[in-house]
Design goal:
This protein has a domain at 2-259 and 413-482: Amidase signature (AS) enzymes (Alpha-Beta Complex). It contains 15 helices and 11 strands. The protein has helices spanning 9-17, 23-36, 48-64, 105-112, 160-167, 184-190, 224-234, 278-293, 309-324, 344-355, 358-371, 376-397, 423-427, 434-439, 468-482; strands at residues 43-46, 74-78, 116-121, 173-178, 193-196, 216-221, 264-268, 297-301, 403-407, 443-450, 456-463. It has an 11-stranded mixed β-sheet, sandwiched between helices. β7, α8 and β8 form a beta-alpha-beta unit. α2 packs antiparallel against α3 (48-64), α8 packs across α15 (468-482) and α9 (309-324) crosses α11. The longest helix is centred in the last third of the chain and has 22 residues, at 376-397. The protein is globular, with a radius of gyration of 21 Å.
Length: 492
Amino acid sequence: MAGLTDLSLAAMRAGLKAKQFSARELVTAHVEAVEAARPLNAFLVETPDHALAAADAADGALARGEAGLLAGIPLGIKDLFCTKGVETTASSRILMGFVPTYESTVTAKLFAAGAAMLGKLNLDEFAMGSSNETSAYGPVISPWRAQGSTAKLVPGGSSGGSSAAVAARLCAAATGTDTGGSIRQPAAFTGIAGIKPTYGRCSRWGVIAFASSLDQAGVLARDVTDCALVLEAMAGYDPKDSTSLDVPVPHYAGGLTGSLKGKRIGIPKEYRVDGMDPVLEDLWQKGIDWARDAGAEIVEVSLPHTKEALPTYYVVAPAEASSNLARYDGVRYGLRVAPDGGSLSDMYAATRAAGFGAEVKRRIMIGTYVLSAGYYDAYYLKAQKVRALIAQDFARAFEACDLLLTPTAPTGAFELGAKTADPIAMFLNDVFTVPASLAGLPAMSIPAGLDGQGLPLGLQLIGRPLDEMGVLDAAFALESRAGFSAAPVRWW
C-alpha cells in the first residue's frame, strides 16, 4: 500500500474514518518508507515499535468512536524534543546516550491526540545552523535535485530532518523548532508548508534550549490544512513553562476559508533587497496578485530597522546559547571526558571540546564575549534595545495592515558544503525570517513556485501576536491560488 504515503494528513484522517485502510496499514507503509530512505539521513532514531503500538491503539479508538485528532497519524519528531525512553541528543555528541525519563509537553500532547512517532529527526547541532550540516551525525540530504544535476542539496536548517522527511513522504508531518527561521526556511527549501506560532503558544518544556527568548515549537507538513491540524493538537497553555500563554486554542483547520476579503496585506519595502533573484521577485509579485485576487487590499509598509535584525539576532541568540549550554559539563548526563590525573576543570574543558561541534563552539564564544563585563553594554544591551525597536516597527506596521507578505528565503536550496566555509553567507539565509522571531510573531512559509533550477521557493506570511488563524487562512488562500504540486523525484 505504497500509495498511503502520498496522502496528505487530512486525507489520511478521512481514510481512517471511512475505514478505507487501518492505522496499522498506514503506519506500516510509513515505517517501510523510513527504512528505504536511510540514505537521506533524516532520522537519527527509528521507533517502529512505538509507531505500531500507537497505530493499534488508534484502530481500537477508531472502532469505539473515541479517536483523537491525530489518531493513527505517523509523525516525525525533531530530536530537540525530549521523548521518554527514547534517546534524545539534539544532534550533538555531548548528549550521546541521553535517554530522558520524561516527555516534552508538545510530544505528550501529540501522543495524547493519537499520533504515532516514527522516530527522532536529525537537525543542526542544538538547532544552530541553516543547512543541517552541523549535526554530529552527518548532514541530512534533501530529497530534491536541481534540474540535470545529481549534486546533493541541503534541506535547510535547523529542522532539516523534519523538512526532508515530510518532503520525501516519510511522515505525514513533523515537529520543528524555530529560533530565527528554522521551520520556515527548511520548509521553503523543500517545497512544503511550515508555521512558527506566536512565542508562548506552544510549550517549551522538555525542548532542549538554544535561545530561550526566541525558541518556539511549530509544525512542518505537506500543506496549510495539515499544519493547522497538528498545531491545534500541540498548542496550549502549560503551567510548567513560565513563558506559556494562557489563551484558548482555536479550531484552526475548521477556520480556513480561503477568503481575504476586508484584509489588508502589507508589503515591507525594506525586504526588497539589492541583488534579489528576479525569479524570487517575480514570485513575490505573484503572491501579491494572489492576495489581491482573494479580496485583500495591498498596502506598502515600512520596517525601518529590518537591516539591523540579523546582527541583533546574532548577538542575542549566541548570548542565550552561551548561558543555556553551560549545563553540559560531563557531570550529570551525556558525554564525559576525564583526562588522567586531571582536575574537575580539566574534565569540563575536555568534555566540551570533544562534545561540541565547531558551529556550537563559535556561538558559545560569541555569546560569552558579548556577555562579558567589558562588552555587555556595547553589544548585548544595545542588541536588546534594537530588538525592542524591531518589535515596535511591526506594531506600527500592523496599524496599517493585518498581515505581512514577504519571501521566505533569498534563494533556493544550495549544494552541501557550498557555504560552510563562510558563516556570514550562511547567516544570510535567515535575513527574511529573523525579524518576526525577534518580535515573537506568528509566521508561516508556503511553497509558491520553482527557481531556475527547478527547486522550490517559498512565500512568508507574518501576523499579529496570537493571530495564527489569520496567518493560516491567508496562507490557505495563497496556497490554493499558487497550485504548487511539484514534488521531489525519488532517487534514494
